[in-house]
C-alpha cells in the first residue's frame, strides 16, 4: 500500500482576516489547498524543500494531477524529495471567491498583489517553518501568480518555472476577457441575487469561446468536424461546474493585468517555458520578452502541437528542466 505522502491531501484553512490592496478587509477567509510529499528540515527546524504549484485558468489545487509527467512518484518533482503545496487561488471556487463567499457581484476586484498575498499569508500562517520556498511552478493563470511572487517578494524563493503563460493580459487574452464579459453581462439574470439555472447557457457559450483559444492550430486541424463537435460538447459539460461570477472577476483581472515595467525586479533563477503554436500564450509575445528582460533567465520552447494538453508533452524537456533545477 502506498504511503500517504504519495497522495494529494485536500484541506482547508481559515484566515481570521485578509486585507486586499484596496484596503478592504474580510474575516473568516477560506483557503482551499492540497499537499503531498515529505517535508525536510534544517538544523533550525525550517522546511527547506517546499515546492509551490500554481494552477491554470478555471482549475484548482487538483490541477497538479494533470502534470504527472514531472510531478509524482519517481518523477522530477517527486514526493520523496519535495514537500509540494498546491493552493486554490483567490477568486476560484472553494477558496475565497465570489461563489464561495456568496458575495457574487459584490466581491471586490482583485489585483496581482492580492493573488500573491493570499498565497503568501497562507504559507506564513499554515507553514511558518517555510522561511524560503525552494521553487514555484506556475502554469497559465498560475504563471502570472508565480511571476508576481518573484517580483513582489524576490527573496522568497530560489527559482520560478513559468510555463505556457505571460506577463500581461494583452492581445487575444484581452479580447477574450472583454467578449466573455459581454456575454455574461448580456444576460438579464446576471445581476440577480439568486443564481438562475438559465445562466448555464452563458457558461456554455463562454466555454465554446474559450475552446477557440485552448488548443494549437495543428491539433484543431487534425480533428474531423465530428471530433470537434464531440470535444466542444465535452468543453460545455465541464463549464457547468464553473461559476459565472468567478469567471467575470477573472476577466476583470485579466483586462488590467500588466507586469511589463516590473520584470527587472526578478532576482531568483527563472526558467521560462513557451509552448510552440499555442494560441493563447504565444512564445514570441508572451514568453520570450520575459526571458529577454530578466538577466540570467533561461528559455525552453516545447513542441506540444499534437496534444490537447501541453502538460502531456513535458516529458520532452524533462532533462532540460532537471538540469535547470539541479544547477541551483
From TrEMBL:
Coiled coil (UniProt feature): none
Keywords: Hydrolase, Transferase
Single GO biological process annotation from the record: homoserine metabolic process
Domain AB hydrolase-1: 49-197
Gene Ontology MF terms: homoserine O-acetyltransferase activity; hydrolase activity
InterPro entries for this protein: AB_hydrolase_1 (IPR000073), AB_hydrolase_fold (IPR029058), HAT_MetX-like (IPR008220)
Family annotation (Pfam families): Abhydrolase_1
PANTHER family in alphabetical order: HOMOSERINE O-ACETYLTRANSFERASE
Name of this chain's protein: Alpha/beta fold hydrolase
Organism for this UniProt entry: Methanobrevibacter millerae
